[in-house]
Amino acid sequence: xxxxxxxxxxxxxxxxxxxxxxxxxxxxxxxxxxxxxxxxxxxxxxxxxxxxxxxxxxxxxxxxxxxxxxxxxxxxxxxxxxxxxxxxxxxxxxxxxxxxxxxxxxxxxxxxxxxxxxxxxxxxxxxxxxxxxxxxxxxxxxxxxxxxxxxxxxxxxxxxxxxxxxxxxxxxxxxxxxxxxxxxxxxxxxxxxxxxxxxxxxxxxxxxxxxxxxxxxxxxxxxxxxxxxxxxxxxxxxxxxxxxxxxxxxxxxxxxxxxxxxxxxxxxxxxxxxxxxxxxxxxxxxxxxxxxxxxxxxxxxxxxxxxxxxxxxxxxxxxxxxxxxxxxxxxxxxxxxxxxxxxxxxxxxxxxxxxxxxxxxxxxxxxxxxxxxxxxxxxxxxxxxxxxxxxxxxxxxxxxxxxxxxxxxxxxxxxxxxxxxxxxxxxxxxxxxxxxxxxxxxxxxxxxxxxxxxxxxxxxxxxxxxxxxxxxxxxxxxxxxxxxxxxxxxxxxxxxxxxxxxxxxxxxxxxxxxxxxxxxxxxxxxxxxxxxxxxxxxxxxxxxxxxxxxxxxxxxxxxxxxxxxxxxxxxxxxxxxxxxxxxxxxxxxxxxxxxxxxxxxxxxxxxxxxxxxxxxxxxxxxxxxxxxxx
Length: 630
Hints:
Elements: H1 2-14, E1 24-27, E2 60-64, E3 68-70, E4 73-75, E5 87-92, E6 97-102, E7 107-110, E8 115-118, E9 120-124, E10 135-139, E11 146-158, E12 163-169, E13 175-187, E14 192-197, E15 207-213, E16 216-218, E17 233-238, E18 240-246, E19 249-251, E20 265-270, E21 273-278, E22 281-283, E23 294-298, E24 306-308, E25 311-313, E26 318-323, E27 335-337, E28 340-342, E29 346-351, E30 355-360, E31 363-367, E32 379-384, E33 394-399, E34 402-406, E35 410-414, E36 425-428, E37 431-434, E38 441-443, E39 446-448, H2 451-457, E40 462-463, E41 466-467, E42 470-471, H3 512-516, H4 550-554, E43 561-564, E44 571-576, E45 582-587, E46 593-599, E47 602-606, E48 613-619, E49 622-629
């Protein structure tokens, strides 16, 4: 009998109806404050009436679509709802309503939970007139309390002198939980578009479970008069465990940040755990103080987080950034994978000491100068440890990436302070190419002019006794020609960074599934990695049903000729049957003949002057095999 009673109680709780005590309050631009505000036929007019109401769970404030209301909204803890019965601010009729805040905030909610906003635009008087933020949620209750269930959807916020949307807390691990921001346009604000923070890096669990999806955040320029910290960010989330930022676009932020010690970025997180930034586009983010202006960033005290399937282009700063701080042992177990970067100030930058980080299968294109905005581009990859001379990175792996340069751009630079001994930043299985012909690698202040020289002098591109890394044209379909996408559901239309099926790099990559014990990972273009059980460097895995292994791909495919040793270093031997008075050529992947000579049966060819990479052997104009120079 007791079990039956318990079952009935569960059924009753599961079907709790809408709060019968809930009230709907109506506002219209044609309403009257002498009305009772309880129906569409008797609406109030002035939004200030809201601030005199004590809300209960399930109550709603409904503004007439197409109407504008001057003033602001102020909510306190006693105005909270809950997940089942939230307090809702929305519209009725057709279109959105506007709240014109003037020089004030649009909505301020203090220690509030169970709250939703739909289809309302918040408009300030302009970033240099307004002195506050657009929508502000702030919590400081004692006791590590979580104010849960906040939802903002189909809302525009612009014209404010601080942030467009802020979720802040300042009392240890008190904060907000289960936050959902969706289909927002946050623009033309001064300090930032969307921002969260907690008291300090000690409280990374102040906020829990933020989901930010399909938000456009742009033209948040920064405060040119504030020189002590960064302003002009797009989306910046701090103090949160469990963050997902997906399908968002951030552009043209930060152009008025003159701070010289810290700068803005399009989309980034700091003091977070388990954050994911994916399927986002970030471009033309800027700086005036010479610092940052980045596309994406996993910043200080961040762990177990990932940037994946993003497109970062034409940012004045770094495309993909990892930033640490002095004695920051928290910054570890993060990944940058399957992203595309084009013409950012630096392709990928590691700033500070790090632990157990993975950077793999990204495609980075870096021209000497940005072709649109003209700023200088310095590196495909840069590991910088400026300011942290006593701290060294450990177990940083850079694998299976493509670094494609144009002009005078360093492929790789590893700062001397970043490593102790040979290296703690390991490059393995990457492809390097400069279509201008000059590849440079810098490590510990020494410049190497070829991959083989860099490899021979360090532990780079070596696993045990196996030599890795390739200097060759990856045959991208239109390197450097990627356009702005805008609609993040179409990011996989970026075919400029797909690889031609004839590319020699196909199948040369390391098996990251096996190395990292991960499954069900797709490439940037949403294609499977397991079709042929072999892997390719870069963000694209061509869908070829059958490809050869790296060794098979360089074996002879004309049985009348032998090429050995293959791979080799100094001497290439070609031996053929019935091969009198023929012409042999060694051809690079650009089709240039680097060696031409008569061939009579057997020939030993000196090749020590050739760069490391894949070459093609032709006899009388027909390719008879491939040869790999180590």
